[in-house]
Amino acid sequence: MKGLYKIRCAYCFAHFNPHEVLFKCVWEHRPAFIFDPRKDRSFGKKKDYFRAACPRDHIWSSLRVCPNCKKSLPRYAGRIARRSMVATVGIPGSGKTVFLISLIMYLMDRSGSTYPNLVPMFENDESFEAFKPLFQRMIVDRELPYATRLNPAVEPPPISIRLYGASSNDRKGENYPPNLVFFDSPGEVVVSFNNASLVRYLAHASSLILTLDANLLREVGDGASRSFIGNEDPSEVVEVMTRRIRDEMNLPAVEKLKKRLAVVFTKCDAWLYRNYPHLKPPVDSDGSLANGDERKNYLNRTNQICQKLLEGWQQSHFLSLVQKEFSAVRFFTCSALGQAPGPKLARPEPIGVAEPLLWALGVS
Residue 267 — left, alpha, or beta (φ > 0 → left; ψ -120 to 50 → alpha)? Predict the structure, then answer.
């Protein structure tokens, strides 16, 4: 279909053509009335595939849904190519939820005004509704979000954000804004990767952000404080994750995954930044990320120091594993809060949360 693009659902990651979408009636039926315009022959005369007449009441509707999971599709789906997606996954206890909220807030606070000129927009109402309780808890109530718990009856909806100002090139040389999709999955699901949606989410992403608790790695590496409990070992998590991704994509074990992996040390305000102050990212007077040679040198320095720290923390196997499995790997540090959490949080002043995203998008 000339001028139209295949659609990738942000919920189930099904891939389908624009003419295969289903429509939802504009009236508030309970349950919602979903119809297939191909069966009812209710497409518009020009077959634009973006509106159809409900066979019940003959009212035109532009509310499209995925033919597989019946979730709502954004209005631009099919009109704009969706070439890249950044996904996040975290070792249990690494603070992934706090990292995601701080990253979204960081992008919103600085949208379009400072480097990098990224303007985030929620892709649909469901994403905004999923973000609101997290925002309420952390920004309004000034308390840390509750740990994400496994509920077999309810799968957490993804928070899908389209980033304007950062473009990914397709093979024709055209530019399209990438998507940042967050699945705030419970630790039990992340460790086992037995959730089909989570595996498809990671498999179809062009880049991954993996969060690790720097303090836990240091304590385990010292040997005297503690050892990994349960499934906290990052090597085991990466091994299971890459195996599930290969199964989903039908890739042989010897082939590298053609994805960027940004490994992020979280909670660095507690120890790492005090002992390695030069690991803090350079910023300008207005709080935006410094650009040019200073920033480039910082990224290279951080990448090298983090790898040395991992070797000192007895994580050489993890280091070699990620470098063997992914086409490109870089290491980062961050503090999602910019402070040690107390009874009441001050407004978060995140440090370094944007750097992994920029590299994953190819901006750095």
Answer: left
pLDDT value of position 354: 86
Q: Specify the CATH number of the domain 85-361.
A: 3.40.50
Q: What is the DSSP secondary-structure string of 124-162? A: SHHHHHHHHHHHIIIIIS--PPPPP---TT-PPPPEEEE
The answer to whether residue 260 scores a pLDDT higher than 90 is yes
Per-residue pLDDT tens digits for 165-178: 655 444 444 455 66
pLDDT given at position 324: 94
d(Cα 148, Cα 43) in Å, to the nearest integer? 42
For the chain, give the mean pLDDT: 78
Q: Where are the domains of the chain?
A: 7-65, 85-361
With tokens 């790997």, the residue in question is: 329
Beta bridge partners, 53, equal 60
Q: Which residues pair with 207 in a beta bridge?
A: 86, 260
- Distance, CA of 4 to CA of 116 (rounded, Å): 30
How far apart, in whole angstroms, are the C-alpha atoms of residue 323 and residue 325?
6
pLDDT (tens digit per residue) in 272-283: 888 888 888 777
Yes or no: say if 336 and 354 are a contact pair by the CB < 8 Å rule: no
Q: Which long-range contacts (CB under 8 A, 24 or more apart) does 125-134 make?
A: 125/72, 126/71, 126/72, 126/157, 127/157, 127/158, 127/159, 127/160, 127/161, 129/157, 130/156, 130/157, 130/158, 130/159, 130/184, 131/101, 131/104, 131/159, 134/97, 134/100, 134/101, 134/184
Q: Give, as one character, the DSSP assignment of residue 178.
A: -
Could you tell me if 109 and 347 are in contact, meaning their C-beta atoms sit under 8 angstroms apart?
A: no
What tokens appear for 212 in the block? 């690790």
Query: Which H helix or E strand runs over 96?
Result: helix 96-109
Q: Where are the beta strands (DSSP E) in the chain?
A: 7-8, 15-16, 22-24, 34-35, 52-53, 60-61, 63-65, 85-90, 119-122, 159-164, 168-169, 175-176, 179-182, 207-213, 257-266, 326-333
Q: Residue 235's closest CA among 316, 332, 334?
A: 316
Q: What percent of the chain has pLDDT over 70?
A: 74
Is 44 a residue whose pLDDT tops 90?
A: no
Q: What is the pLDDT of residue 69?
A: 86
